[in-house]
Amino acid sequence: MLNDVLLIWKFRSGDSDALAKIYEDHRQNLLRIAAGLLNQTGAAEDVVHDVFVQLAQSPQRLRLQGNLRSFLATCVVNRARNANKAAQRRRTGGLDQAEAIVSDNPGPERWILDNERFTRLRNALAELPYEQREVVVLHLQGGAKFRDIAKSQGVSINTVQSRYRYGLERLRSLLDGEV
Amino acid sequence: MEPKERIERFITDTNVDVHGDKDREVLRDVLRAHREFKQKHERQRHPPIWRSIMHTRTTKLATAATVILAVGLFLIASNWMTRPAWALAQTIEALKSVKAIHIAGRVHYPDRQIDVAIDIWATASSDDPSLSGDFFYREGDDHVCVASERENLTYVSTRHEAPAVTVVYITEGLNRRGPVFPSGNMLEEFKSAAQNWQEEYRSDPVTGKPCVYVTFSGPAVNTARYWLIQIDLTTKLPVRAAVWFDENRQGPAHFEYSGITYNPTLPAGLFEFSMPAGAQVVDSRKIRKVLVETPGLGLPVGGLSCEDACEKVAQAYWQAVIAQDWPTARKLRPLASDKLSTLYTGNPPVELLGIPRMNHVGDPGTLVEVTTVIKLKDGTTHKSLLNVDLRDTAVGRVGVVAGTIGPEFYE
After folding, report:
1. Chain B contacts of A4, Cβ < 8 Å?
2. Whether B37 and A58 lie within 8 Å, measured CB to CB
3. Shortest CB distance from A35 goes to which of B6, B16, B23?
4. A52/B30 CB distance under 8 A
């Protein structure tokens, strides 16, 4: 925690090395969260890329309410939520928008590399309703407390706990035999 | 393990891998964006001092001391701001002359209903006057931290009750507990953060000197809620400070600093650490050396929180020991490589029953202490306090077991 505070202190004082260290420490976990929330790898990579770029452009936003990990995870979740809504809008759009939703072509170079275990988890997460997926990912991978997730989702803590329970049960049945 | 726990563990432990070239490309984008931002906004503010109050007990204590001092100095400035404009500049100027501090006080532990004396000495860093350089912190007879700017080393000495041993951590760099040093840069932070502050002018009951008693509640950051600063109107410097964790100021103050001395004469050898007799020394330089010299040691823990990483390392270590997989165990505990297989002969561990507690998580100047509960072959259950070091290496972040605190097994 103290290291986080010193790091932020340096970053806000203009130290690029501190920003690089924040990036190094957190990008893998943020990619994991974004990829768990979004079905498209490219979209997940964009979300994390944009979170870091925005952080670089607005260091004054970075005030430690809890910890750096949670702060960055919340940024990713907010952007992923918007990306998910936009994807839903596209899915209900006309044929002229079809190209935007066809596939997640890997392209020449992907940031996230295929990893069998993560692919299995991601496919299972994709089967969950978005709200359940968000609770599971935020709690287990983002380290967020249920009460903070409840605040972020605008629902009661009981609802969040139910979503978590249902989400885990569903994942258990989907991953049965693999875990 | 319950099915629910298994699935939770599966999710928690599943990581993504990243493409190195793409990774560097994104970092370049991020740093470019930062450069452009800096060009537009040349002047950067420091981060909020409020946030420097740490979660861990020891960092809270030490940091709070210096933070409180800075609050007091800000409040002097605020008082002067209602008068001629030169006052603020004068305060900031006065701060520049503060090169060293001594703070004496006490911390109250409500759970044990005891007060423990604390003693802090610090000098301003030669590189950055908003940070301390040499730093000394003592709490009671059990805990000492010395950060030496000359040596660029930090020593932390802690007395353990179970197992009964004094441990001294030696880490590279100034990993001091309480890095903030009073400076003009802090004034802006406190100006923006202090809430509901009030001034009451009256004499000090002991010295009779005219003072201003400033009280305010801070933003809800961690545990500190209510603050009191007593400022001597003659010297314009704080002479007493106290912090409550209850915004209604119930009960005794949790921290109280009754003796603050500016630019004190520093006792000779204050920042030279004296090794306690019989102490167990954990020297992180040895771990760094062995990790640099032998690539592939340790367990990759990139992307994990400190707690998760330490748990993963401890589990992997005991799994290897229980399976008598000595090559893997040696990779995870490289400093014990020569004798590792002999540590557990006769009555070897057969099961890791749990990891009930971790100490020094994110605490600078120490390694994480992970309490593990182990069942041995004879059916007895014992604790083993593993010391886990997390470190960035050329191949990413790895965790290793530095050793055990005290004997291999206790209780």
Report:
1. 362
2. yes
3. B16
4. yes
CB-based burial, B335-346: b 16+ in 10 Å, e otherwise: bbbeebeeebee
Rounded to 5 degrees, what angle do the CA atoms B93, A60, B173 make?
70
Measured N-to-C along each axis, helices A41-57 and B20-40 cross at an angle, to the nearest 10 degrees, of 30
Task: Collect all residues of chain B within an 8 Å Cβ-Cβ radius of residue A143.
Answer: 305
Burial of residue B394 (CB within 10 Å: 0-12, 13-18, 19+) is exposed
Residue entry with tokens 């823990």: B301
Which two structure tokens, joined as six digits, stand for B153?
A: 């080393």
How confident is the prediction along chain A (179 residues), in pLDDT tens digits per residue?
446 666 777 787 777 888 888 998 899 899 989 988 987 788 888 899 999 998 998 887 776 545 688 888 888 998 888 887 776 666 554 434 433 333 344 445 678 876 788 888 888 998 988 889 999 999 988 888 888 888 888 888 888 898 999 999 989 888 876 66
ipTM of this predicted structure: 0.83
Considering only the beta carbons, identify the residue of A2, A24, A121 that sits closest to B14: A121
CB pairs A-B closer than 8 Å: 149
Cβ atoms of B156 and B37 closer than 8 Å: no
